Amino acid sequence: MQDSLFPDDDPPAPADPPKPARPPRAKGGTVDSAAPDPVHAEWAQALPPRLRLGTSSWHYPGWAGMVWEGEYAESVLSKQGLAAYARHPLLRTVCLDRNFYRPLTASQYARYAAMVPQDFRFVVKAPSLVTDATVRDEEGRGVQPNPAFLSADIAVREFVQPALEGLGARLGALVFQFSPLPAPMLAQRDETIARIGALLRALPPLQPEAPDGVVAVEVRDPALMCPAFAAMLRDAGATWCLGLHAKMPPIEDQLPMLRALWPGPLVCRWNLNRRHGRYGYEEAKKLYEPFDRLVDPDPETREALARVIAGTTGAGHNAYVTVSNKAEGCAPLTVAALARMLAERKG
Model-level pTM greater than 0.85? Predict the structure, then answer.
Protein backbone atom coordinates (compact mmCIF):
# COMPACT_ATOMS: atom_id res chain seq x y z
CA MET A 1 0.00 0.00 0.00
CA GLN A 2 2.82 2.39 0.78
CA ASP A 3 4.01 2.39 -2.80
CA SER A 4 0.53 3.14 -4.13
CA LEU A 5 0.20 6.13 -1.82
CA PHE A 6 3.66 7.58 -2.32
CA PRO A 7 4.89 7.26 -5.91
CA ASP A 8 8.31 8.73 -6.56
CA ASP A 9 7.38 10.87 -9.53
CA ASP A 10 4.50 12.95 -8.16
CA PRO A 11 4.00 16.34 -9.87
CA PRO A 12 4.48 19.51 -7.83
CA ALA A 13 1.46 20.99 -6.09
CA PRO A 14 -0.47 23.32 -8.41
CA ALA A 15 -1.18 26.94 -7.67
CA ASP A 16 -4.35 27.81 -5.78
CA PRO A 17 -7.40 28.49 -7.95
CA PRO A 18 -8.44 32.16 -8.17
CA LYS A 19 -11.16 33.46 -5.88
CA PRO A 20 -14.45 33.88 -7.79
CA ALA A 21 -15.96 37.34 -8.08
CA ARG A 22 -18.71 38.10 -5.56
CA PRO A 23 -22.18 38.73 -7.07
CA PRO A 24 -24.67 41.33 -5.80
CA ARG A 25 -26.58 40.74 -2.56
CA ALA A 26 -29.58 38.43 -2.82
CA LYS A 27 -32.63 38.53 -0.54
CA GLY A 28 -35.29 36.09 0.52
CA GLY A 29 -35.68 32.88 2.49
CA THR A 30 -34.49 30.50 -0.20
CA VAL A 31 -30.89 30.06 -1.32
CA ASP A 32 -29.79 30.03 -4.94
CA SER A 33 -26.64 28.18 -5.89
CA ALA A 34 -23.80 29.98 -7.62
CA ALA A 35 -23.47 29.37 -11.34
CA PRO A 36 -21.30 26.27 -11.85
CA ASP A 37 -17.71 26.97 -12.76
CA PRO A 38 -16.99 25.03 -15.98
CA VAL A 39 -13.50 24.23 -14.71
CA HIS A 40 -14.95 22.74 -11.52
CA ALA A 41 -17.34 20.65 -13.58
CA GLU A 42 -14.40 19.41 -15.65
CA TRP A 43 -12.43 18.47 -12.54
CA ALA A 44 -15.50 16.75 -11.07
CA GLN A 45 -15.74 14.52 -14.15
CA ALA A 46 -12.09 13.55 -13.72
CA LEU A 47 -12.38 12.62 -10.03
CA PRO A 48 -12.74 8.99 -8.94
CA PRO A 49 -16.44 8.08 -8.58
CA ARG A 50 -15.74 6.63 -5.13
CA LEU A 51 -14.36 9.94 -3.84
CA ARG A 52 -16.60 12.39 -2.05
CA LEU A 53 -15.13 15.75 -1.15
CA GLY A 54 -16.94 18.27 1.02
CA THR A 55 -16.77 20.68 3.93
CA SER A 56 -17.56 20.86 7.62
CA SER A 57 -21.09 22.29 7.66
CA TRP A 58 -22.29 24.84 5.08
CA HIS A 59 -23.75 27.95 6.77
CA TYR A 60 -21.05 30.51 5.84
CA PRO A 61 -22.07 33.82 4.20
CA GLY A 62 -18.48 34.31 2.99
CA TRP A 63 -18.97 31.58 0.41
CA ALA A 64 -21.03 33.96 -1.72
CA GLY A 65 -20.03 33.67 -5.36
CA MET A 66 -18.46 30.26 -4.75
CA VAL A 67 -21.40 28.24 -3.42
CA TRP A 68 -24.26 30.75 -3.11
CA GLU A 69 -25.63 33.14 -5.73
CA GLY A 70 -25.53 36.29 -3.64
CA GLU A 71 -25.22 36.93 0.10
CA TYR A 72 -27.40 35.42 2.81
CA ALA A 73 -27.62 35.51 6.57
CA GLU A 74 -26.06 32.57 8.36
CA SER A 75 -29.46 31.59 9.78
CA VAL A 76 -30.92 31.34 6.26
CA LEU A 77 -27.99 29.28 5.02
CA SER A 78 -28.21 26.95 8.01
CA LYS A 79 -31.85 26.13 7.25
CA GLN A 80 -31.98 26.42 3.46
CA GLY A 81 -28.43 26.31 2.13
CA LEU A 82 -27.77 22.58 1.91
CA ALA A 83 -29.66 22.09 -1.36
CA ALA A 84 -27.64 24.86 -3.03
CA TYR A 85 -24.43 23.46 -1.53
CA ALA A 86 -25.15 20.01 -2.97
CA ARG A 87 -25.51 21.45 -6.47
CA HIS A 88 -21.83 22.47 -6.48
CA PRO A 89 -20.11 19.96 -8.78
CA LEU A 90 -17.25 19.25 -6.34
CA LEU A 91 -19.25 19.02 -3.10
CA ARG A 92 -20.58 15.47 -2.74
CA THR A 93 -20.47 15.13 1.04
CA VAL A 94 -20.70 17.29 4.14
CA CYS A 95 -19.89 16.74 7.79
CA LEU A 96 -22.81 17.25 10.18
CA ASP A 97 -20.76 18.72 13.01
CA ARG A 98 -23.80 20.00 14.91
CA ASN A 99 -24.68 16.46 15.97
CA PHE A 100 -21.59 16.51 18.22
CA TYR A 101 -23.23 19.15 20.41
CA ARG A 102 -26.82 17.95 20.37
CA PRO A 103 -28.07 14.70 18.80
CA LEU A 104 -30.27 15.09 15.75
CA THR A 105 -33.56 13.24 15.37
CA ALA A 106 -34.45 10.88 12.55
CA SER A 107 -36.81 13.51 11.11
CA GLN A 108 -34.02 16.12 11.09
CA TYR A 109 -31.74 13.71 9.27
CA ALA A 110 -34.53 12.92 6.81
CA ARG A 111 -34.99 16.61 6.06
CA TYR A 112 -31.31 16.92 5.19
CA ALA A 113 -31.44 13.78 3.07
CA ALA A 114 -34.34 15.21 1.06
CA MET A 115 -32.23 18.24 0.10
CA VAL A 116 -29.42 16.35 -1.66
CA PRO A 117 -29.03 14.02 -4.67
CA GLN A 118 -29.10 10.25 -4.30
CA ASP A 119 -25.32 9.91 -4.69
CA PHE A 120 -24.58 12.46 -1.94
CA ARG A 121 -23.24 11.01 1.33
CA PHE A 122 -23.18 12.48 4.83
CA VAL A 123 -20.36 12.29 7.35
CA VAL A 124 -21.86 12.53 10.84
CA LYS A 125 -20.06 13.14 14.13
CA ALA A 126 -21.21 11.13 17.12
CA PRO A 127 -22.56 13.22 20.01
CA SER A 128 -20.05 14.28 22.65
CA LEU A 129 -22.46 12.72 25.12
CA VAL A 130 -20.76 9.38 24.42
CA THR A 131 -17.34 10.46 23.11
CA ASP A 132 -16.16 12.96 25.74
CA ALA A 133 -14.96 11.41 28.98
CA THR A 134 -15.59 14.69 30.79
CA VAL A 135 -18.68 16.84 31.35
CA ARG A 136 -17.70 20.37 30.37
CA ASP A 137 -18.94 23.83 31.32
CA GLU A 138 -19.83 26.58 28.85
CA GLU A 139 -16.16 27.55 28.58
CA GLY A 140 -15.18 24.01 27.61
CA ARG A 141 -13.50 23.21 30.93
CA GLY A 142 -13.94 19.71 32.31
CA VAL A 143 -15.93 19.75 35.55
CA GLN A 144 -16.64 16.07 36.28
CA PRO A 145 -16.49 12.59 34.75
CA ASN A 146 -19.13 11.86 32.12
CA PRO A 147 -21.30 8.90 33.24
CA ALA A 148 -22.52 8.37 29.64
CA PHE A 149 -19.02 8.06 28.18
CA LEU A 150 -18.81 5.02 25.87
CA SER A 151 -22.43 4.05 26.57
CA ALA A 152 -23.41 1.69 23.75
CA ASP A 153 -27.12 2.03 24.54
CA ILE A 154 -27.00 5.81 24.20
CA ALA A 155 -24.82 5.64 21.08
CA VAL A 156 -27.27 3.33 19.35
CA ARG A 157 -30.43 5.09 20.51
CA GLU A 158 -29.30 8.71 20.11
CA PHE A 159 -26.96 8.38 17.14
CA VAL A 160 -26.78 5.27 14.99
CA GLN A 161 -30.47 4.39 14.76
CA PRO A 162 -31.70 7.96 14.02
CA ALA A 163 -28.95 8.46 11.43
CA LEU A 164 -29.77 5.18 9.68
CA GLU A 165 -33.50 5.85 9.76
CA GLY A 166 -33.24 9.42 8.51
CA LEU A 167 -30.36 9.24 6.04
CA GLY A 168 -30.67 5.68 4.77
CA ALA A 169 -28.47 5.10 1.71
CA ARG A 170 -27.16 8.67 1.95
CA LEU A 171 -25.25 7.79 5.11
CA GLY A 172 -21.52 7.72 4.38
CA ALA A 173 -19.51 7.72 7.61
CA LEU A 174 -20.31 7.77 11.31
CA VAL A 175 -17.35 9.37 13.08
CA PHE A 176 -16.70 8.81 16.77
CA GLN A 177 -14.37 11.72 17.55
CA PHE A 178 -12.93 11.27 21.03
CA SER A 179 -11.85 14.42 22.81
CA PRO A 180 -8.49 14.31 24.64
CA LEU A 181 -8.77 11.66 27.33
CA PRO A 182 -7.90 12.21 30.98
CA ALA A 183 -4.39 11.15 31.97
CA PRO A 184 -5.57 8.15 34.06
CA MET A 185 -7.34 6.68 31.02
CA LEU A 186 -4.24 7.08 28.88
CA ALA A 187 -2.16 5.51 31.62
CA GLN A 188 -4.44 2.46 31.34
CA ARG A 189 -4.33 2.48 27.55
CA ASP A 190 -5.10 -1.19 26.96
CA GLU A 191 -8.20 -1.03 29.14
CA THR A 192 -9.36 2.16 27.43
CA ILE A 193 -8.87 0.63 23.98
CA ALA A 194 -10.86 -2.42 25.07
CA ARG A 195 -13.73 -0.20 26.26
CA ILE A 196 -13.82 1.66 22.94
CA GLY A 197 -13.83 -1.67 21.13
CA ALA A 198 -16.77 -2.88 23.22
CA LEU A 199 -18.75 0.20 22.18
CA LEU A 200 -17.97 -0.28 18.50
CA ARG A 201 -18.85 -3.98 18.51
CA ALA A 202 -22.22 -3.19 20.09
CA LEU A 203 -23.28 -0.97 17.18
CA PRO A 204 -25.81 -2.36 14.71
CA PRO A 205 -24.63 -3.06 11.14
CA LEU A 206 -25.06 -0.16 8.73
CA GLN A 207 -25.88 -2.37 5.75
CA PRO A 208 -28.19 -2.88 3.97
CA GLU A 209 -29.77 0.51 4.81
CA ALA A 210 -26.48 2.30 4.10
CA PRO A 211 -24.48 0.25 1.57
CA ASP A 212 -21.59 2.74 1.64
CA GLY A 213 -21.72 3.26 5.40
CA VAL A 214 -18.58 2.98 7.52
CA VAL A 215 -17.79 3.61 11.19
CA ALA A 216 -14.61 5.61 11.80
CA VAL A 217 -12.80 6.66 14.97
CA GLU A 218 -10.95 9.96 15.32
CA VAL A 219 -8.78 10.64 18.35
CA ARG A 220 -6.91 13.61 19.76
CA ASP A 221 -4.34 11.62 21.72
CA PRO A 222 -1.24 10.47 19.77
CA ALA A 223 -0.69 7.77 22.40
CA LEU A 224 -3.62 5.86 20.87
CA MET A 225 -1.79 5.52 17.55
CA CYS A 226 -0.58 2.01 18.25
CA PRO A 227 -0.92 -1.54 16.90
CA ALA A 228 -3.39 -2.45 19.67
CA PHE A 229 -5.75 0.35 18.61
CA ALA A 230 -5.53 -0.66 14.95
CA ALA A 231 -6.22 -4.30 15.87
CA MET A 232 -9.25 -3.22 17.89
CA LEU A 233 -10.62 -1.23 14.95
CA ARG A 234 -10.16 -4.15 12.59
CA ASP A 235 -11.85 -6.55 15.01
CA ALA A 236 -14.79 -4.15 15.43
CA GLY A 237 -15.19 -3.58 11.69
CA ALA A 238 -14.33 0.12 11.99
CA THR A 239 -11.59 2.28 10.48
CA TRP A 240 -9.22 5.06 11.48
CA CYS A 241 -10.36 8.61 10.75
CA LEU A 242 -7.44 10.63 9.46
CA GLY A 243 -7.85 13.66 11.71
CA LEU A 244 -5.69 16.54 10.48
CA HIS A 245 -5.37 18.68 13.57
CA ALA A 246 -2.51 20.19 15.53
CA LYS A 247 -3.24 17.86 18.46
CA MET A 248 -2.27 14.94 16.24
CA PRO A 249 0.87 14.17 14.21
CA PRO A 250 0.90 15.27 10.55
CA ILE A 251 -0.69 13.11 7.91
CA GLU A 252 2.45 11.17 7.01
CA ASP A 253 2.88 10.01 10.61
CA GLN A 254 -0.71 8.76 10.80
CA LEU A 255 -0.44 6.59 7.70
CA PRO A 256 0.82 3.50 9.60
CA MET A 257 -2.65 3.28 11.15
CA LEU A 258 -4.23 3.19 7.67
CA ARG A 259 -1.71 0.66 6.45
CA ALA A 260 -2.50 -1.60 9.41
CA LEU A 261 -6.16 -1.55 8.34
CA TRP A 262 -5.54 -1.90 4.61
CA PRO A 263 -7.43 -2.62 2.44
CA GLY A 264 -10.35 -0.41 3.33
CA PRO A 265 -12.08 2.96 2.97
CA LEU A 266 -10.68 6.38 3.81
CA VAL A 267 -12.35 8.82 6.16
CA CYS A 268 -10.50 12.11 6.60
CA ARG A 269 -11.44 15.32 8.39
CA TRP A 270 -9.03 18.21 7.81
CA ASN A 271 -9.89 20.30 10.85
CA LEU A 272 -7.22 22.90 11.59
CA ASN A 273 -4.05 24.36 10.11
CA ARG A 274 -1.10 23.22 12.20
CA ARG A 275 0.31 26.75 12.47
CA HIS A 276 -2.32 27.58 15.12
CA GLY A 277 -1.29 24.88 17.59
CA ARG A 278 -3.37 22.53 19.70
CA TYR A 279 -5.90 25.11 20.88
CA GLY A 280 -5.98 27.40 17.88
CA TYR A 281 -9.60 27.25 16.72
CA GLU A 282 -10.48 30.74 17.93
CA GLU A 283 -7.25 32.19 16.54
CA ALA A 284 -7.94 30.60 13.15
CA LYS A 285 -11.55 31.79 13.20
CA LYS A 286 -10.55 35.40 13.85
CA LEU A 287 -7.82 35.30 11.21
CA TYR A 288 -9.81 33.57 8.47
CA GLU A 289 -13.31 35.05 8.72
CA PRO A 290 -15.36 35.56 6.55
CA PHE A 291 -13.78 32.40 5.06
CA ASP A 292 -13.73 33.73 1.51
CA ARG A 293 -10.07 33.19 0.57
CA LEU A 294 -7.10 30.94 1.21
CA VAL A 295 -5.06 32.65 3.94
CA ASP A 296 -2.62 29.88 4.86
CA PRO A 297 -2.23 27.55 1.87
CA ASP A 298 -0.82 24.16 2.86
CA PRO A 299 0.19 22.46 -0.39
CA GLU A 300 2.25 19.83 1.43
CA THR A 301 -0.78 18.49 3.29
CA ARG A 302 -2.88 18.67 0.13
CA GLU A 303 -0.29 16.68 -1.81
CA ALA A 304 -0.01 14.01 0.90
CA LEU A 305 -3.78 13.77 1.14
CA ALA A 306 -4.11 13.50 -2.64
CA ARG A 307 -1.75 10.52 -2.58
CA VAL A 308 -3.82 8.75 0.06
CA ILE A 309 -7.03 9.47 -1.85
CA ALA A 310 -5.55 8.17 -5.10
CA GLY A 311 -4.26 5.02 -3.42
CA THR A 312 -7.59 4.33 -1.72
CA THR A 313 -9.92 4.95 -4.64
CA GLY A 314 -7.50 3.35 -7.08
CA ALA A 315 -7.86 0.13 -5.09
CA GLY A 316 -11.66 0.32 -5.36
CA HIS A 317 -12.53 1.74 -1.92
CA ASN A 318 -14.64 4.73 -0.91
CA ALA A 319 -13.04 7.95 0.33
CA TYR A 320 -14.85 10.60 2.37
CA VAL A 321 -12.84 13.80 2.85
CA THR A 322 -14.26 16.87 4.58
CA VAL A 323 -12.42 20.15 5.09
CA SER A 324 -12.92 22.92 7.64
CA ASN A 325 -12.58 26.62 6.89
CA LYS A 326 -9.87 26.56 9.54
CA ALA A 327 -7.65 24.32 7.43
CA GLU A 328 -6.52 27.02 5.00
CA GLY A 329 -9.09 29.80 5.31
CA CYS A 330 -11.86 28.78 2.90
CA ALA A 331 -13.07 25.18 2.71
CA PRO A 332 -14.60 25.32 -0.81
CA LEU A 333 -11.34 26.68 -2.21
CA THR A 334 -9.37 23.97 -0.43
CA VAL A 335 -11.71 21.38 -1.94
CA ALA A 336 -11.20 22.94 -5.37
CA ALA A 337 -7.42 22.88 -4.95
CA LEU A 338 -7.54 19.21 -3.95
CA ALA A 339 -9.81 18.40 -6.88
CA ARG A 340 -7.50 20.16 -9.30
CA MET A 341 -4.51 18.26 -7.92
CA LEU A 342 -6.30 14.92 -8.26
CA ALA A 343 -7.60 15.69 -11.75
CA GLU A 344 -4.13 16.66 -12.94
CA ARG A 345 -2.62 13.54 -11.41
CA LYS A 346 -5.09 11.47 -13.39
CA GLY A 347 -4.38 13.42 -16.56
Answer: yes
